[in-house]
Structures are given as structure tokens and as C-alpha cells.
User: What shape does this take?
Amino acid sequence: KGTKNQFVIDAGQKNFGATMCKSCGMIYTASNPEDELQHAQHHHRFLEGIKYTGWKRERVVAEFWDGKIVLVLPHDPSYAIRKVEEVQELVDNELGFQQVVPRCPNKTKTFLFVSDEKKVVGCLIAEPIQQAFRVLSEPTSPESPGSRECHRAWRCSNEPVPAVCGISRIWVFRFKRRKRIARRLVDTLRNRFMFGCFLSTNEIAFSDPTPDGKLFAAKYCNT
Ligand code: ACO
Ligand code: ZN
Assistant: This one.
């Protein structure tokens, strides 16, 4: 049944070629058990979301009619850290990021948006930074608009500007987008990143934004 949803990209090497799942978009090697297991896990998370049953000591930093935002810090209990790793794995697979090691892992702040259905439907990972480069408005290859290959090739200015907080990941569960979840995550981050102050939009920077991320950031920073 599984093979119905798959197609082989590199038909030259039937058994070794990479396969892309049409439902979850993951590219993996179907003949490799480890890869297949990873795919099965990602596939399930991608479609069903990640459960959040609640913790005895959770840091709720915002509450809404449709959910709440929980903050996880680097020295939190291992069940909290494991949950964050699980979410980050889903996000990185979806964005096609390779495992990225944070610059200062002990200063990372992770905000999880938990829905009323007890699922993690949003995630924002932030870290302190000193400077950022502004994204200039147009992508580098105007001859191929919408091309997937150049989807992160935004031009950046060479002049660094001071910044305080870098958003290394922002993500909202596919079926919960355009409900202001990302906006509420960034609002909460600005309020909570540094004790006693509300960061201005000039002090936050989005690292390596995707097209979705760029559209969101442009809208967010102008309103
Ligand atoms: N296209 C156009 N405008 C958008 C989009 C979009 N895809 N997403 C958000 N906006 C704008 C809209 O103006 C929106 O307001 P509106 O719905 O009233 O018109 C406003 O931003 C606020 O949007 P939210 O509802 O708060 O955004 P959402 O919760 O849908 O999350 C996000 C946006 C995180 C970019 C989501 O689309 C996502 O997870 N995408 C896939 C992962 C991704 O690409 N993340 C960014 C990676 S870059 C990085 O991590 C630094
Ligand atoms: Zn899949």
C-alpha cells in the first residue's frame, strides 16, 4: 500500500534511489530500514501533529481562547527538552533543514503554542544575537519566479545592523495556519525574551527565512 504514495526520483537505481512521499514531502531511501522508520515517524507527525499532555511544572506565558503558549528553557526537565526536540525534528524535516546546532544552546528560548486539542501547533525558537543583515526585497534569480531551487536565495545587505534576538525557527502546524498563531508567538517572544522590556521589531531578526517566513515577517514588522 505504501508504494502507492511514492515515486522514485532517480529511476536509474531502483532500489537505492531517493523516494519522495507525496503526502508529507519527505525524501528518503525506501530500501533503507532506518530511513523508512524515520519517514514513518515524520509522516505520522506531519499529518497528526504532536501530542502535548501537559506537565506538572509548565511555564505558561500566554493564554488564549484557543490555546496557550508554553516557554521551555535549556535547563528544564528532560521531558520538556524531549518534546522540544520532537517538535524541532518535525519542523526541520518540513523545512528541509539539516540538523543545525544552535550557537548558544544554553540561551535558547523555545515557545510552544499548545492548542485546546492538546497538540503542539506552533513553535518559535529564539536565541540572542548581536547583529543581523536586512533582507533586500527581491530574490536573486528573477528569471525563475517561484522556483524551489532559489527559495532561500534572498539577497541580503552587506551592512550589519544591531539586533538583539534572532528567530531561528518559526513554524505553525499546516492545518492551523492563518489563525494568528505565529503573530501571537512573536508578540509573546518580544515580551519575554529580555526581562522587563518589550523588544521592538527592529531588535528581532528572522534567520534564513523561507517564502512563507518572509511574507509573515514583512507583514508582522509593518503592523
Ligand atoms: N502568505 C502570505 N501572507 C502570510 C503568510 C503566507 N503564507 N503567512 C502569514 N502571512 C501574513 C498575513 O498577512 C497574516 O495575516 P492575515 O492572515 O490576517 O492576512 C499575517 O502574516 C499573520 O499570520 P499568522 O496567522 O500569524 O501566521 P501563521 O500562524 O499562519 O504562521 C508561518 C506563519 C509560521 C510562516 C507558517 O506559514 C509556517 O509555519 N510555514 C511553514 C514553515 C516556515 O516556512 N516557517 C518560516 C521559516 S523561516 C524561520 O524559521 C526563521
Ligand atoms: Zn510521508
